[in-house]
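pinging the channel bc i need a second pair of eyes. not urgent but kinda urgent?? the chain im working w is below, pasted from the shared doc
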Amino acid sequence: MANEPVTPRHAAPEPEPVEEDAFARFSPAPEDNPGRLRRIGRGTWRVMIHEWALAAYASLLLAAIMTWPTLKYPAYTIPQDTGDPTLQAWQMAWSGHSLKTDIAQLWNSNSFYPEPYSFAFSDTLLGYAPAGLFGTGLEAALIRYNIMYVLLHALAFFGAYVLARQLGSGKTGAAVAGAAFAYAPWRLAQAGHMHVMSVGGIALALAMLARGHGYSLRHGYQPEKRKPGWALAGWLVAAWQVSLGFGIGLPFAYVLAGIVLTCVVLWFAFRRWKWGTPRSFGWKLFSADLVGGVVFAAVGLLMALPYLKVVELHPYAQRSEVELSWYSPPILGFFTSPAQDLLWGQAHSSARSVLDGADGCCSGETSLLPGFVLYGLAIAGLILSIWTLRQRLLLFAGVVLSIVLAMGTRFFGGRPGYLWLYDVLPGWDAIRTPGRLVIWTTLLLALLAAGAVTAFVEQAKTIAQERVPARPHPMLRLATFLPLALVLFEGLNVTEHPVVPLQPAAMASAQGPLLVLPSDALMDMKVMVWSTDRFEPIVNGNSGFTPQSLSEIRELTKNFPDQASVDRLRQIGVKTVVVLKEYAKGGPYEAALTNPGDGLGLQRTETDDAVTFTFQ
């Protein structure tokens, strides 16, 4: 008894072993009830890895690579040349300055003093005005321009990608469409025309509108997939696209109007000839279209008003048929690459000399090659495609029509064709470059190509299913990406990135209104971007046309300072004339560097970079 263990009086009995349920391991996992932060984190992660997000990341990375070295020295260089790009850097700076200071003076810019509505002398890139809110001066203007230059390429790729996907293309086919639309060789000649290159909003708006209305080429109209919010967003993006400029925005507006009219006609025709079979539309979608359409029309109207004022004040600003003929490409232009293309630029130099003609004018506007790879893929898309035969034929008809219109006066004199639109459609007579309609040629070719590539990828998957194991051969997988690589290779560029001259010190302290000499189209664009530090009123300016007042002053001041030029400048309120030594030497304004201007009521000051005359 002494060796027996002692059991505590109040010890708890040992638990009996629980027999495991044999089916417990097959039951569903316990329901997870995450907290609010965890739900937000999961939702954010799903958004970040969504296809559209991944496409956006790829678009940005590809844009930085394809436009390199734009982002190498963004504070000092600018793509293409120091002409039109500096003008457009000034445009973004001016619109942002107006938003910060006095929006009522938006259309009365500091250039072309004292002309009113001078901001409407050319396309304004007004949609980029929010970017102009940040920074002042030349460095900020260049950084802003270079960043937007890269972003517009990314948006063009992304917009065409999502449009092709919405219409029914596979991912690889959509990537080919995006690359073809964003990096077509013809776009390299337009590197100095940001308003022409900013076309991503066109494809994105069409994609949003199609998604909002539950429509795709491959699956037709699916009422259950209607999303009124997407439709409204599509109209807003379309309005933003128009705000960038009418040169590209006006044809887009007429395309949208044509689509709406066609859909309305087909809608009523269907209801009439399908024995009244109901086709869902819904008041929510109708309301979204109504509100979006009104916003789109209002933006277009508000943008048009200052341009109408300009035409009223300067009737010669309208484009003549002779001027249109200068910018109308022959059919050769659609097979000719601009000089900036790495692959074809040098090889097509003789073709460009033919396009230039006797006056050496406009090969940059008439070298309109969308890409030989794109042509090949589009032709393949007429034979093998996910699109139906009728859809392929309609896309091909659109390609032919867009080429005919883009040829301007070169297609049977323009009637029938471009000049019919010039005669009938309001505002069309203000567009001087028919060749820019190649935007639509490129987009339609890209959709044909997307259909062909998607069909090829699906065929590859079908072949892979017959293998054991069922996965595509590495070479077959690689072959599906070959069209994308070839399209991108054809879009590689050798675009120059010159250094933009710094603002002369004499101009930095000059009191406005001022005139900087010499004054001509190229020089005045530099003067405009130099003025972004203080936005002093300047007589200098350049745009799609030159007002007679500026032409007269340029001619008159070739003898400055003399009595006639001084009296005219004093009459319009000029307080300072800055004559830049580096640019005036060897030209008609050189005499002003040594003329003392005695007896004319001027104070002459000479510095290292300029001679400044201040009106007393």
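so The first strand starts at residue 215 and ends at 216. and The beta strands are 215-216, 220-221, 514-517, 576-580, 602-606, 610-615. — does that match what u expected or am i reading it wrong
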